[in-house]
User: Which sequence fits this backbone?
């Protein structure tokens, strides 16, 4: 359930990038699917579990549906998926996916009995991986890199809060909500209010246009 | 057999890119090998099977032989692997590898008992993956992205035809030939006659030179 | 032991790249960790072994410590991690990691009973993989590509010497030292004295600034 929500929002970000790159319908499907299931695939490979979307292909179908809907919008309503509004949708959907996968990754790591630092590393890696492969496939500079605000930090906070609350014995629902609040909250705060760590000195910080 | 054919043609594309980038002999070998075995490696990892080239290293040796032959040509016959002829060879070998791996991926997915949508997604992903990592390693924009014609579409068609014909009970040879015809035919049609989906409006379509 | 040394030096290269890109502390941690454990993760996935850092998270913690130390230096001593000195440290740490992972990869391949060509391919692939994902994540052209000198060659030599000496029945310590000497020696020779294969004719060789 939670996983499918994460898959869908990441698939949406993949479809938005495909729209910007003027790909064809199957290009949309590939980019949406790889972005949507990428992080969970890495997680399951690392845990040596059966990859989640293979047995239950509903997530692949969801990604395809999101992709085709986006292609239709881009085709029949030109310009809708361009510009500032689409860029903001991309960034916020990415933020939601980041928080969801950080929580799920940390939970699955704990459930598999991995040590605590690994469960946090796990959540943070799998939460950021989908966006990384989206941007690399699209030939863009990875968002994880040019983001001057909380990005990996938000993923780590979401995973860390999930692990911490679970260790303290909170009910699963509270663990999940706490993790989501920490991950999405930090990311949202940095997007809305510019929260960040103190910047490193130096002026060659990469910008989105680099 | 079929798999080795796919490995060799993808290895050839890797070697051609290495020639364009003026790499050294072991650079040729790395790029040829990673391109040749990349898609099948992803497929086997996802299916939790033993990775195909580890037990039977003949494919790795084939990739190395292709790479060294290409390096020798580039060294002793300068210019042979540059220019328009080499570019066309690259694109057509990539097309052959795409069709072969789409069919093999779909077949192996079916043989492993994965659901139908997953088998198709599988074939399409593993068919495109070798070329994706080749282009990323070479610092090029992935062909999957700038290709304005049928590319992912051809991979999906090859995988889809394979799955469809197999479900209809055709003999394995016919399934294979039908899958190859669908995949390679669509790609060839788009390369020769410009077949494609209707283009999305907008003028920022990336070009090979981007 | 040897593995942790390789993880630390590769983590250091990831942190140095993060410093150049002016990332935030968790960006440092992500880049250092992914670079440090990347090659070994690929190796363990291919061998279908439990991924090494999941059960024993000390390596993840080491990467994080290296990353935070580097961030602190970049923050409190601006300029220290820039410039020519840092570039040289990056290249030499990368060389050390390359040799270490070539030997470890080949050894683990042999221990898992894979055929000889696969064990060598293995060592070379896993030795170069960490640096490849570091450079791709950072949006840089992979060092493996623009390096005109012995790079993949050094990795293959280290893996090949390890496999050869092991086959000849030398003691494990000698196998290891021989592999390290071959891998690091070739790389060092090419960095210090410009050792390389004869260059391919043509003038479009990519440069670091490409």
Assistant:
């Amino acid at each position: 359930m939670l996983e499918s929500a994460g898959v869908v929002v990441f698939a949406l970000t993949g479809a938005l990038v495909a729209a910007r790159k003027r790909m064809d319908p199957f290009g949309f499907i590939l980019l949406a699917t790889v972005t949507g299931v990428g992080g969970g695939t890495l997680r399951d490979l690392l845990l040596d579990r059966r990859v989640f979307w293979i047995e239950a292909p509903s997530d692949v179908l969801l990604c395809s549906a999101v992709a085709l809907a986006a292609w239709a919008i881009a085709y029949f309503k030109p310009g809708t998926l361009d510009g500032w509004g689409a860029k903001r949708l991309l960034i916020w959907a990415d933020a939601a996916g980041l928080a969801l996968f950080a929580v799920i990754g940390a939970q699955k790591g704990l459930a598999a009995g991995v040590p605590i630092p690994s469960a946090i590393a796990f959540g943070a890696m799998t939460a950021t991986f989908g966006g990384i492969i989206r941007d690399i496939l699209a030939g863009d500079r990875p968002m994880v890199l040019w983001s001057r605000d909380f990005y990996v930090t938000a993923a780590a906070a979401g995973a860390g809060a999930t692990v911490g609350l679970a260790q303290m014995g909170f009910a699963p629902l509270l663990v999940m909500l706490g993790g989501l609040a920490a991950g999405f909250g930090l990311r949202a705060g940095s997007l809305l209010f510019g929260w960040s760590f103190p910047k490193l000195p130096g002026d060659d910080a990469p910008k989105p246009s680099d």
Q: What stands out?
A: Residues 2-193 of chain C form one domain.
